[in-house]
Specification:
Elements: H1 3-9, H2 13-29, H3 45-49, E1 73-78, E2 81-83, E3 91-95, H4 112-120, E4 125-129, E5 137-143, E6 148-150, E7 153-158, E8 163-172, E9 177-187, E10 192-200, E11 205-215, E12 220-229, E13 232-241, E14 247-256, E15 261-270, E16 276-285, E17 290-299, E18 307-316, E19 322-331, E20 337-345, H5 349-357, H6 362-378, H7 384-399
Parallel strand pairs: 1-5, 4-7, 5-8, 6-9, 7-9, 8-10, 9-11, 10-12, 11-13, 12-14, 13-15, 14-16, 15-17, 16-18, 17-19, 18-20
Antiparallel strand pairs: 1-2, 3-4
C-alpha cells in the first residue's frame, strides 16, 4: 500500500470510495503539460519535481491575529484542521468529514488538481448562510512547515435572498510547500456575495486553486482577488450564470517580483438570458516576475441579451518582467453586447517627471504611480480597514519593505 493509499484508508469510511476513485483517475490522467492550451504558460516541471508529504491533520499553536477586520466570524484551517467559534443565527458550518454530500464526481472531473484534492483532503468545511449576517466571514488558511501539501476544501451555499461577505486569506511560513485549494459556491435566487481572496504566501510556496460558482436567478456575485506574494500561484475560476438576470463581477490584482509567477484563468458561462458579467484583471510585474491572465466568456444559445465585458491591464516595472494575456469570447446566440481588451506598458515617464518636478524623489514618484494603479482594484473593497491594509502592503512590497 502506498503512502497516499494508506492516508485514504485511514480516513472516514463514507468518503473512501469517492477518494479512491479520484486517486485512480488522477493517476490515469497524470499531470498536465505545456501542450495543453489551458496550461500553456504554467511552469509545472519544477513543481512536479518537488516532493511534498500529505499528512493527517495535526494540532497547531493557533492562527495569527487579523489586523484588517474587526471581530469577524473566523474559521481557521490550520495544517488540515478546521477550527470555528460559536456561530450567529443564519450561519451553519459542518466539517466536510462529517457529511458525504456533494463530495464531487471523480468520473466526470477533468481537473487533475481538483481530483487530487478530492482524493487527499483531510478535512474541509460546508457553510450555509440564511438571511444577512452582520459580520464578515473570515476564512484563514495557515500552513506551517516545509515539504508539506495541504488540500483545503470549502463549500458555501447562500439561501434564497441571503447576503454575505466572505474573506479568504492564505498565509504561510517560509519553506517549500504546496497548497491545493478547492471552493464551490452556490448562490440562491436574489442572493448576493461579496468575496475577497488574499494569497500572501512565502517565497517558496506553490499555490493552486480551483473555484466554481453557480448563480441562480437575479443573484449577484462580486469577487476581488489579490495575489500579493508566493513563488507560484494558479487560480482557476469558473462562473456559471444559470438563472436569468444574474450578475457577476470579477476583479483581480496580481503582483509578481523576482522569479514569481501568478496566473488567473477565468471562465464565465452565460447560460441563462439577460445576465451581466464584468472582468477587470490587472497586474504589476517587477524584476523577472511573470503574470498570466486567460479570460474566457462563453455565451450559450439560450442566453440572449447577455452583457459581458473583459479588461486586462499590465504594468511592467523592468525590462525582464513579463505579462501574458489571452482574452477570449465564444458567442452562440444573437442580441448580445460583448467586448474585451488588453494593454501592457510601463510607468508613464511624463507622469514621473511631473511628480518629480513637484519635489518627489524618483522612488517616491514611482511608488505613487504604482499605488494609484493598484488602487483601481483595491479601491473596490468595501471594508475600509482591509482596503487600507492592501494599499499599504502593495506600497511596502514595491518599496522594499516586504
Amino acid at each position: 500500500m502506498t503512502e497516499l493509499e494508506a492516508l485514504i484508508e485511514a480516513g472516514p469510511d463514507h468518503l473512501k470510495q469517492v477518494r479512491q476513485e479520484a486517486l485512480a483517475k488522477f493517476r490515469a490522467m497524470g499531470w498536465p503539460d505545456a501542450h495543453e492550451e489551458s496550461y500553456r504558460f504554467t511552469r509545472l516541471r519544477p513543481f512536479i519535481a518537488e516532493h511534498f508529504e500529505t499528512d493527517a491533520p495535526e494540532e497547531n499553536e493557533g492562527g495569527s491575529s487579523v489586523s484588517f477586520l474587526d471581530e469577524p466570524i473566523t474559521v481557521r484551517f490550520e495544517n488540515g484542521r478546521v477550527i470555528y467559534p460559536e456561530l450567529p443565527a443564519g450561519v451553519r458550518i459542518q466539517n466536510w468529514t462529517d457529511q458525504n454530500e456533494r463530495v464531487g464526481h471523480p468520473i466526470e472531473e477533468k481537473s487533475p488538481f481538483r481530483l487530487l484534492n478530492t482524493a487527499l483532503r483531510s478535512s474541509g468545511a460546508c457553510l450555509q448562510i440564511e438571511g444577512e449576517p452582520q459580520l464578515p466571514i473570515y476564512l484563514q488558511f495557515s500552513a506551517q512547515g516545509s515539504s508539506r501539501a495541504t488540500h483545503p476544501r470549502v463549500m458555501l451555499r447562500l439561501a434564497e435572498g441571503a447576503h454575505a461577505q466572505l474573506i479568504e486569506h492564505f498565509v504561510s511560513t517560509p519553506g517549500k510547500a504546496f497548497t491545493n485549494a478547492v471552493i464551490d459556491i452556490e448562490l440562491g435566487a436574489n442572493s448576493s456575495l461579496q468575496h475577497i481572496l488574499i494569497v500572501q504566501d512565502g517565497a517558496e510556496r506553490y499555490h493552486f486553486r480551483d473555484a466554481r460558482i453557480h448563480q441562480d436567478t437575479a443573484s449577484h456575485y462580486s469577487g476581488t482577488y489579490f495575489h500579493l506574494a508566493g513563488h507560484q500561484a494558479r487560480h482557476y475560476l469558473e462562473v456559471n450564470l444559470e438563472g436569468a438576470h444574474a450578475e457577476t463581477e470579477l476583479n483581480a490584482l496580481l503582483l509578481a517580483k523576482g522569479q514569481e509567477q501568478a496566473e488567473n484563468q477565468f471562465t464565465v458561462r452565460h447560460i441563462a438570458p439577460s445576465c451581466k458579467s464584468r472582468q477587470q484583471v490587472q497586474s504589476i510585474v517587477d524584476e523577472s516576475g511573470h503574470t498570466v491572465f486567460t479570460g474566457k466568456v462563453i455565451v450559450g444559445e439560450d442566453a440572449p441579451k447577455t452583457d459581458a465585458g473583459q479588461s486586462n491591464r499590465n504594468l511592467l516595472l523592468s525590462s525582464t518582467a513579463r505579462a501574458d494575456a489571452m482574452p477570449q469570447l465564444e458567442i452562440y446566440t444573437d442580441d448580445v453586447a460583448c467586448r474585451h481588451g488588453s494593454t501592457t506598458g510601463n510607468l508613464d515617464p511624463e507622469a514621473l517627471f511631473y511628480l518629480m518636478a513637484r519635489g518627489l524623489s524618483r522612488q517616491e514618484a514611482r511608488l505613487m504611480l504604482i499605488a494609484a494603479f493598484a488602487h483601481e482594484i483595491a479601491g473596490r473593497v468595501r471594508l475600509p480597514q482591509l482596503r487600507n491594509w492592501v494599499d499599504d502592503y502593495i506600497t511596502n512590497r514595491f518599496g522594499g519593505s516586504v
